């Protein structure tokens, strides 16, 4: 087998077109990724009363877990030092267009800086009572909506770094909803009521911001530093407000209770949700699309060129075990393609990410292990697709037929699912489940969050299968094609 591998390697390097194609894989993958990233711009701007233009890039704070988050809401609060609690009765949550994940309730937050640690008990537009903390954590409480006839009592109790949430229908019988441990919570935190709602309301004649309104009474806050004047803060993780504008929302205190109005969201920064500014790392690998086309051509030509020149007869005469010939070609081609793609991806991600940041974009942070998974996983996808194209070349024995079939199986679904954001999510999801393109799930770095209303389609960097399951789909296609190619090689004349 060693001699057979050496023979196939010599064949590969002796064909100038194959060597050029191999070199083009990292060049095109990295070059086009950087080029497309250079044209991506994100930012804000406004004119000051003096006529000066102010502008800047997009921004997104980092949550306690290191992920990008949205942290925009209106907050009526008081300081709470040490242990304590806050209890309210909610009698309403309203909006001009109530969103399912509109939210209002009580919150204990490290401070009013966007991205700081928090725990909250809330009533939502269509998902009942929830306890959420540190942006990614969510657990359900009482179901149903809230009104004066069906109020919801909410309570948060702080004991050191631990926040425990409770709900009740009558203020007497309480049910524990969840417990959050907020590591490093400062001695003095901010506790109070909040309101937020994602999205904008767009009508035929105007686009108006949706404001959620929470109605509270029986407000009770206990602990050191509480009992004074309530302060109002528009916590804003988005673009800065123009001079003289405090941001949407506010609160009113009456003899019977409070109303708090707010806009925004307290959640992970998921592409496609609300005013998301985070850019998934897959956008730093846009050159993969063209690189895959080169891989398909190289993989198909590696065997069809021998058929075209009649050299395949000599190959099979020297090695009658045709399956071994196919296996040797697959090993040589897959190894070379893997190395070339690995180089291209390793160059593309840092350079394209740098260009994205220069354009004001916020690139989602990656851990070292995630970075390795994306780079190595994408290179493995290149290798598997090259072997699939090789198998198709052995099946059809014609380069045009093999390349065309591979493009229909791989490139067309990729283009439809990734490049057409208006494609129905159901259709794009199925394309990414059953075609070899499912393997592109290796590039997903942001999880799906049930509490975040995002499109979660492939064009936003989300895939219906896990990275491992998606790659397994490609391996199944490649393995099946190799089996069929080996079966046909044994039954057809060279």
Short key terms for the protein model shown above:
Jelly Rolls, two-stranded antiparallel sheet, 9 helices
Provide structural commentary:
It is a single chain. Helix 7 (399-419) runs antiparallel to helix 8. The longest helix has 37 residues, at 322-358. This protein has helices at residues 2-14, 16-38, 288-309, 312-318, 322-358, 368-396, 399-419, 425-434, 467-491, and strands at residues 43-47, 53-57, 69-71, 73-95, 103-109, 118-124, 129-133, 137-140, 152-159, 162-168, 175-181, 188-196, 200-202, 207-209, 212-224, 231-235, 250-253, 258-262, 266-268, 278-279, 362-363. The radius of gyration is 29 Å and the shape is elongated. It folds into 2 domains: 2-39 and 278-491; 69-268, Jelly Rolls (Sandwich), CATH 2.60.120. The chain is of the alpha+beta class. A hairpin with a 4-residue loop joins strand 17 (250-253) and strand 18. It has 9 helices and 21 strands. Mean pLDDT is 88; it is low at 201-207. Strands 4, 5, 6, 7, 8, 9, 10, 11, 12, 15, 16, 17 and 18 form a 13-stranded antiparallel sheet that branches. Helix content is 38%, strand content 26%.
């Amino acid at each position: 087998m060693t001699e057979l591998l050496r023979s196939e390697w010599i064949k590969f390097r002796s064909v100038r077109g194959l060597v050029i194609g191999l070199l083009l894989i990292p060049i095109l993958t990295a070059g086009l990724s950087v080029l497309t990233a250079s044209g991506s711009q994100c930012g804000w701007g406004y004119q000051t009363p003096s006529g000066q233009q102010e502008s800047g890039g997009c921004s997104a704070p980092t949550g306690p877990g290191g992920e990008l988050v949205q942290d925009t809401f209106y907050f009526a609060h008081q300081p709470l030092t040490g242990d304590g609690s806050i209890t309210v009765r909610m009698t309403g949550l309203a909006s001009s267009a109530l969103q399912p994940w509109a939210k209002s309730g009580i919150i204990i937050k490290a401070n009013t800086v966007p991205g700081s640690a928090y725990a909250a008990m809330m009533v939502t537009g269509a998902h009942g009572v929830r306890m959420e903390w540190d942006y990614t954590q969510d657990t359900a409480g009482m179901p149903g909506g809230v009104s004066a006839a069906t109020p919801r009592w909410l309570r948060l109790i702080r004991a050191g770094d631990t926040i425990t949430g409770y709900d009740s229908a009558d203020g007497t019988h309480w049910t524990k909803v969840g417990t959050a441990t907020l590591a490093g919570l400062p001695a003095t935190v901010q506790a109070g009521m909040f309101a937020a709602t994602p999205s904008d309301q767009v009508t035929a004649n105007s686009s108006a911001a949706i404001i959620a309104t929470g109605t509270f009474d029986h407000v009770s806050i206990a602990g050191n530093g509480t009992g004074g004047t309530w302060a109002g803060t528009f916590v804003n993780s988005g673009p800065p407000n123009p001079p003289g504008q405090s941001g949407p929302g506010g609160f009113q205190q009456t003899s019977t209770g409070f109303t708090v109005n707010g806009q925004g969201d307290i959640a992970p920064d998921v592409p496609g949700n609300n005013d998301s500014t985070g850019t998934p790392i897959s956008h730093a690998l846009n050159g993969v699309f063209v690189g895959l086309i080169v891989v398909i051509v190289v993989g198909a030509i590696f065997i069809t060129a021998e058929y075209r020149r009649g050299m395949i007869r000599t190959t099979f005469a020297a090695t009658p075990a045709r399956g071994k010939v196919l296996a040797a070609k697959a090993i040589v081609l897959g190894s070379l393609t893997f190395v070339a793609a690995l180089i291209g991806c390793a160059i593309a991600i840092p350079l394209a990410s740098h260009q994205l940041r220069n354009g004001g974009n916020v690139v989602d942070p990656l851990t070292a292990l995630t970075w390795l998974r994306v780079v190595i996983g994408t290179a493995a996808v290149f290798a598997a697709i090259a072997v699939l194209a090789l198998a198709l070349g052995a099946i059809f024995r014609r380069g045009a037929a093999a390349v065309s079939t591979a493009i229909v199986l791989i490139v067309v679904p990729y283009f439809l699912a990734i490049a057409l954001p208006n494609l129905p999510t159901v259709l794009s999801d199925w394309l990414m489940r059953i075609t070899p393109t499912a393997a592109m799930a290796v590039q997903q770095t942001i999880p799906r969050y049930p509490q975040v209303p995002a499109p979660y389609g492939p064009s936003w960097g989300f895939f219906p299968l896990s990275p491992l399951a998606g790659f397994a789909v490609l391996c199944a296609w490649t393995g099946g094609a190799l089996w069929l190619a080996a079966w046909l090689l044994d039954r057809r004349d060279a």
